[in-house]
Design brief:
The protein has ten helices and eight strands. The protein has 329 residues and is an alpha/beta fold.
Length: 329
């Protein structure tokens, strides 16, 4: 099984375009060493502006890894029993790293650049089994007020572009991997449009067992967040009653039962102490063994020394869950 850690190299996938790559070598080394010690056999590395791409050098920011450095790290990790998987997020809400090309979305130039980058990282990462394409939170309204330019795909265009990106990965000889947002939000369309060879990561950072649900009144951050619309009028008692969580419960495991291979993603980001354990338990009980490809932990902390302890803690939680529910793997 896959026991994966999500890690960042670049950071321009959110709201502020950073002009330098501040990944710290000492932090990266510490994380890789801890990954090996905690049974992590894969690291999904979010590249963004953090690589000096030969095909599009204009995308790199100062401090980006050279192509030689990427090859070195792939080889080093492999020697430690860790496969390094490239991630390029092409979601319209997470593509600041694409520079001027993000403003050309779904044009011939954009498609060419996407293919160039996917093909290049396939070679740089020594023919990886998977290439992660992101594609989470496409068109999510909560991001509109945070972005300088609001443009996103809908209708047939989202399926066309997703198919195109997946075909770029397939043409290399790799398997496309995406966040499962589109599957959870549009389950029927997704099954009609997206092949079963696409691996999915359904993500949920809250509890899954009812006895572990988080009362909204328990934390000020929850009170503030769920006290606003559209949540205020829903009169929620628990965080886990919000639409995203209920959609996850309704659609994530069925996707695996319908033939998609899944790698559920956990996190310490939401400060839910039960998330990792509950997720491992839930999918062991509700997803067919042959389609549960593994698990990922995404601490959503950048690769700097100040974050190393939290990143390692997330790996230890995943190790504990593996030993508890998947001793044979």
């Amino acid at each position: 099984m896959i026991w994966s850690l999500y890690a960042t190299l670049g950071q321009n996938m959110w709201y502020t375009e950073k002009q330098t790559v501040d990944t710290e070598d000492a932090a990266w080394d510490a994380i890789v060493e801890a990954a090996a010690e905690n049974g992590i056999n894969q690291i999904v590395l979010d590249l963004g502006e953090g690589v000096q791409y030969g095909s599009h050098p204009e995308l790199a920011k100062p401090g980006a890894w050279t192509r030689e450095r990427v090859r070195f790290e792939v080889k080093r990790c492999k020697g430690m029993g860790i496969e390094l998987i490239p991630k390029l997020n092409f979601s319209a809400t997470h593509h600041l790293w694409l520079g001027e090309y993000r403003r050309m979305m779904s044009t011939p130039t954009y498609y060419r650049v996407c293919r160039d980058l996917i093909t290049e990282v396939y070679g740089l990462f020594d023919n990886p089994r998977f290439i992660h394409l992101g594609m989470d939170e496409e068109g999510d309204p909560q991001f509109f007020e945070k972005l300088e330019m609001v443009a996103y795909r809908r209708g047939e265009l989202i399926w066309h572009d997703l198919q195109y990106l997946c075909d770029c990965v397939r043409d290399c000889g790799s398997t496309p991997w995406i966040w499962a947002d589109l599957c959870l939000e549009y389950p029927e369309e997704f099954r009609k449009k997206v092949g079963k060879d696409v691996m999915l990561s359904p993500w949920n950072y809250n509890a899954l067992r009812p006895e572990h649900y988080t009362p909204i009144a328990s934390k000020q951050r929850h009170i503030d967040y769920y006290g606003k619309e559209p949540y205020k009028s829903m009169n929620l008692t628990y965080v886990e009653e919000e639409p995203f969580c209920t959609r996850f419960m309704a659609q994530a495991a069925p996707a695996a039962r319908d033939g998609y291979k899944i790698v559920p993603c956990v996190s310490t980001w939401a400060e839910c102490e039960y998330n990792t354990d509950d997720t491992a338990w839930y999918f062991k009980e509700n997803a067919p063994k042959e389609n549960l490809a593994g698990f990922m932990t995404a601490p959503w902390k950048h690769t700097t020394m100040e974050n190393v302890d939290e990143i390692i803690r997330s790996m230890k939680l995943l190790k504990e869950a593996r030993e508890k529910y998947f001793q044979e793997n």
